[in-house]
Amino acid sequence: MAEQQVVRGGAVGGEDEERRGHTVASVREEQEQAEQRAQDGEHGEGGHGEGGEGGEGGDTADNFAANFWKKQLATSKKPQDFRVQQVPVNRVKRIMRLDEQVKQLSLDAPIIMAKAAEFFIAQLTTAAWKETTQENKRVIQPRHIRNAAKQEEQYDFLVDILNELIP
Q1: How is 41-98 classified by DSSP, letter by letter?
Q2: Which domains does the chain have, with CATH numbers?
Q3: CB 134 within 8 A of CB 58
Q4: 164: burial class by Cβ within 10 Å (0-12, 13-18, 19+)?
Q5: How many contiguous H segments (helices) and E segments (strands) does the chain have?
Q6: What does the DSSP 8-state code read for residue 101?
Q7: How far is the C-alpha of 15 from the C-alpha of 83, rounded, in Å?
Q8: What are the tens digits of pLDDT across the range 34-61?
Q9: Is 135 helix (H, G, I), strand (E, B) or coil?
Q10: Rounded to two decimals, what is the model's pTM?
Q11: For residues 47 and 52, what is the distance between their CA atoms, to the nearest angstrom?
C-alpha cells in the first residue's frame, strides 16, 4: 500500500517540483534508471549539455538528437498515469478555452494536448541543446532556441516571434 502513496513535497532542493504528483514507486524507478544510465556512461562527460573537450560535445549532441524520438516512443509505451504531466493540464485547458470557437472540451483533450506540448518542448530543447554544444557552451541561451528554430523547417511559425522576443 505504501508504494502507491503520492509524494507531496519533502524532497531536497529543486527535486520537489519534479517529484510532485509521482508515486513513490515511480520515483524509485526513475532513480534506478538514472543510476543505470550513469553506470552505462550515458551521462558521462560531454553528455546532456555538459560540454566536453574538443568535438566530443557535438558528437554527443548529434547522437542524442538522433535517438530523441526513439527514447520518447519507448517512454510513451510504458504504462503511466497520463493525469500526471510535466505541463499543467489545467493551464492547457484554460489556454484551449481562450479560443472563442471552442465550445466544449472532452476530458482527454487537455491531457493529450499537455503531452503533445511536453513532446514539443522536449524536441525544441534538444535542438537548442545541439546548437549550444556546437558553440562549446553549457547553458542554453535564448539565441540557441532562436537558431534551432531557424534550422528546422517545422519551427518556421516560431521564427518571427522569436526574432522579436530575442535581440
Answers
A1: TTTSTT-TT---STTHHHHHHHHHHHTHHHHHHHHHHS---TTS-SS-HHHHHHHHHT
A2: 1-43 (no CATH), 54-165 (1.10.20.10)
A3: yes
A4: exposed
A5: 8, 0
A6: T
A7: 20
A8: 556 655 554 444 444 333 334 444 456 6
A9: coil
A10: 0.57
A11: 8
